[in-house]
DNA sequence: ATGAAAGCGCTAACAA
DNA sequence: TTGTTAGCGCTTTCAT
């Protein structure tokens, strides 16, 4: 717990000025090579490391890329792995930040504001709650907010995925198919809703509004909606949830209600987070390439930071049906 | 890309001094409540957010906890989820940092030095390369370095896990069992090595040094070691790898060599990262509770930051054998 | 109750 | 080639 040496300590120990140390450490011109050697020796001896914070207050660039997430949950963790992979060979450090735990609307604006302009040279924001973030650094959004996207975005084909999921249930013979929606402010959630409706429409089935619940990706909300849906006499024989976490909560609620999965109720999710395949029974879902999402966002950001004009600033990656053990024909 | 408002902007717009704004925003005493209201209104209007960096340079505490990782790979991602979970209801923000991508020895000392004293109030370092980190903030190590642990640590029972893994192979009837070791500077790696040797010893089998390779948890090193081991005429019929990433690389190498898993070669890993169960064939492994590791580390750190003296500062969590499809009796 | 001023550790003109 | 100086945005005495 001893005090970290500062540039002043180094300067004193080396018998030179603070600015000389700064120059030596940062390899600026105009320092005698012997002086550099001497300073660096002192630096090594004292174990000096420049404070990222202090440096970033003065210099415009820090060599750090920030990933802003509402929370470190399975989805964002996968994204993070992808970003890490893409940045592995770059010179950038990676800083992931979860502020105020995404409880408040506009968490990303707040986080971005606190970090940008100084700490990070560019940012990737995951499932943001606002469209507009005025910043001084390039920003890429993953799974963006609804509304006009002035930000470069990377997302998965949610509409197509929802279509596949709902059709899968239809193909199995289900006709009463429920839907638990996600965060209504996310473009992806809306697309999943639309995909669900389209698939039903294509099959000539009218959407029963009592079979559509709002889950907002929050377990408590999902629970309420699922309970309400499953306790009614004409309950659905299958439910499509807008993400895996919601789907897993539905499975849990069904279990508490004494419903057998998939005999009494089929459930399908969206995302294919690692937890999906490990749950019992293994969750049927629609896979979105989360790590690739992260990697592509990183590549896009890097390109933006180099001042380039990337050919495409709105990427949509394909999704794929992954049927597992929670979907089966109705009784 | 417009400039973020600073405290000076707010002060000007509100017609008060910078210090008054600071006091108002931070709820300090000595400001008329009408002034506070007025200032806060301007703050809201301008969308001002204090710069984390600038604040942290002046105040000793920031309300941010840092997790330092070499890299955002599956293992550390799981840890991160656990830490996030444990901190969900705390008032702390979470900042995960991967600097210099763990390539250089002592990355965590460097990162810690750059962040601590200013940006973060406490840190969790994952698989550090050094024992000693002199800092101004409390630090907890997960999967710590070998050597006298002056740091509070949280780790899994690597020795017991390795014992289970090797015995599993023994029980299946294997007698020529190889081992690909991990990072030799990690206490856990050494314990896994020891567990392997103990299990063989207990079974009355001498350790064949040609059946022990060093992988250092790096894919290229693992590949070399695996190739060397598997190309010899008296190749092992089973290999225990010190972590899953290594094990998966071995499976890959075996495939290239035309060896069938698990018929020609059994492979078992360690960790049970999400990828293990998703690989084909599904990897047999020893599960360590990574998320719990992270959560416990967070709890320990929180307690330390409150100035408490926790009852135990060295936690060891249990591991569990998870046999899957890559282990079978020898031909 | 308010504001002026110092300074956190560092970088970048500018002077010497 | 080196050192001096002026801030970066903020918090915190200390005057007013």
Topology:
Two copies of one chain form a homodimer.
Chain A lengths: L6 H8 L3 H9 L6 H14 L5 H7 L5 E5 L5 H14 L5 E6 L8 H9 L6 E5 L12 E4 L10 E4 L1 H14 L5 E5 L5 H16 L9 E3 L4 H12 L7 E4 L2 H13 L9 E3 L5 H5 L6 E3 L2 H16 L8 E4 L2 E3 L9
Parallel strand pairs in A: 1-2, 1-3, 3-4, 4-5, 5-11, 6-7, 6-8, 8-9
Antiparallel strand pairs in A: 10-12
The structure holds a DNA duplex (16 and 16 nucleotides).
CATH superfamily of the domain at 158-287 in chain A: Response regulator
What oligomeric state best describes the polypeptide chains here? homodimer
**What is the overall number of helices of chain A?**
12
What's the CATH first level of the domain at 158-287 in chain A? Alpha Beta
* Global geometry of chain A: elongated
Q: Approximately what portion of the residues of chain A adopt beta-strand conformation?
A: 5-15%
How are the strands ordered across the major sheet of chain A?
A: 2-1-3-4-5-11
Question: What about the largest sheet of chain A?
Answer: 6 strands, parallel
Query: Could you give the count of β-strands of chain A?
Result: 12
**CATH level 3 topology of the domain at 158-287 in chain A:** Rossmann fold
Task: Please tell me how large the radius of gyration of chain A is.
Answer: 25 Å
CATH architecture of the domain at 158-287 in chain A: 3-Layer(aba) Sandwich
Biggest interface, and residues per chain? A-B, 52 and 52 residues
Structural class category of chain A: alpha/beta
What's the SSE pattern of chain A?
HHHHEHEHEEEHEHEHEHEHEHEE
The overall pLDDT average of chain A reads 93
Distance between the termini of chain A: 65 Å
Helix content of chain A: 40-55%
Uncertain regions spanning at least 5 consecutive residues of chain A: none
